[in-house]
Amino acid sequence: MRVLADTEVLQRSYVTCIAATMLLEYLINNWKYTNAPEGKRPFEKIVGLLKFGVPSSFLMGAYDCVIISHTQTVWSTANCMAYWMVPVNAMCVTFASVAYASARIRQKDDYTNYALASLACGGIIHHWMKNGFLSCYFTVALLICAKIKKHNELLGIEPLPMGYSSDIINRQYEKYPDFTLTKDPRGRRPWE
């Protein structure tokens, strides 16, 4: 068995990182939940939700590990991360799968598909948190958010466009932005 030199290991890890970055960028830019109508391309819809579920659940788990739980071992860290990552990502997969299945069975694209998917995610929340009061309120909030999302989708409204860049935000007129609330009535100083 041949032992790899340090440069070969670095080159292989570099190539792996580049490939993973390219794949991640491809998934983020091209696989969206709303690319296909309901009842079509379920895997793309699952990946479209997981690309939001994985990073957010990772950040929640990391926050819990570092700030709240102060985990000391690898096992306790993995347990704490899994506590957050598994249910959140299971809800993403469940929402996409149930919405797809109900759209295929009913042959309709309306609010009921999202309502059924939200109720299925409520079951995961109840099993995860083991608190009926909290899971009931979370399910109702998820139902409301799903209805608003479907309403905006049916009307063609995009309240938070993902690829939005404004000239007002990107424009900078001077070297240092002026964050003062009121301008000096005497005008600019020579040192400004």
UniProtKB/TrEMBL annotation:
GO terms for cellular component: mitochondrial inner membrane; respiratory chain complex I. Keywords: Membrane, Mitochondrion, Mitochondrion inner membrane, Transmembrane, Transmembrane helix. One of its GO terms (biological process) is mitochondrial electron transport, NADH to ubiquinone. The chain crosses the membrane at residues 12-28, 49-69, 81-101. It is a multi-pass membrane protein. Its main location: mitochondrion. It is found in: Mitochondrion inner membrane. Belongs to the complex I NDUFA11 subunit family. This is NADH dehydrogenase [ubiquinone] 1 alpha subcomplex subunit 11.
